[in-house]
């Protein structure tokens, strides 16, 4: 009789667990944006929000938890229960924090659900710059000229990307951090620096207006948004790195949670309803999931760590 009771109890437990998995989501889902409202990560999530709510048939609650360059919000996300009801807007800011040793977590403490958007890092110069190509800029540095390169923020992803490019080109640039992207762009337009390294979306307006000109960018292949700008690899520099945005959760997310999110995002991307948002943001839709995404995260994290190591020297 005891064996029968145990057997029945075990059966009910399995049925209950299976039912719970099948019902995901059965309540609101919180997505933590580890930055203030109005920024790129926030805009990305809020643009996806109504589309995801329709696909997942539940409310998506966007919660901005800013501080520490993303550290506060990401720390909250990684410490949450891995049940699929607390996720985070993930980006290479996570890998920057990890690379600089500013946080206790690493990329391996997260389950990455999807990469949705990306943009290249772009090397740009003033419209009247002496440099017409990446090669001319690199050659000047090789010949002893102090080539000043502006970036947004000390230890930022743009700072690390600039170091990674100098490593790939085997030269030393005089890298000058500014408080933000607008100050960095102004410095280039005013001739206070020779070049800048920033995300393509941030440079979109000054490039389109001709106030700056792009010499190269960090994609593996040319970008639809910057079709006339050569890649670093085209110019002979072995570096591929992107500014990306996606969704992640704490390690241990159930398979059905990841599958549900991937299915929803795949449908949204296939319908094309998100394309206008991407265009307005100056970003490229470049979804990755599963093993391909894990490989991408591992590779980009390694590049960031190596460049951050050089930055610390």
From TrEMBL:
<keyword id="KW-0732">Signal</keyword>
<dbReference type="Pfam" id="PF03401">
    <property type="entry name" value="TctC"/>
</dbReference>
<keyword id="KW-0675">Receptor</keyword>
<dbReference type="InterPro" id="IPR042100">
    <property type="entry name" value="Bug_dom1"/>
</dbReference>
<protein>
    <submittedName>
        <fullName>Tripartite-type tricarboxylate transporter, receptor component TctC</fullName>
    </submittedName>
</protein>
<dbReference type="InterPro" id="IPR005064">
    <property type="entry name" value="BUG"/>
</dbReference>
<feature type="signal peptide">
    <location>
        <begin position="1"/>
        <end position="22"/>
    </location>
</feature>
<comment type="similarity">
    <text>Belongs to the UPF0065 (bug) family.</text>
</comment>
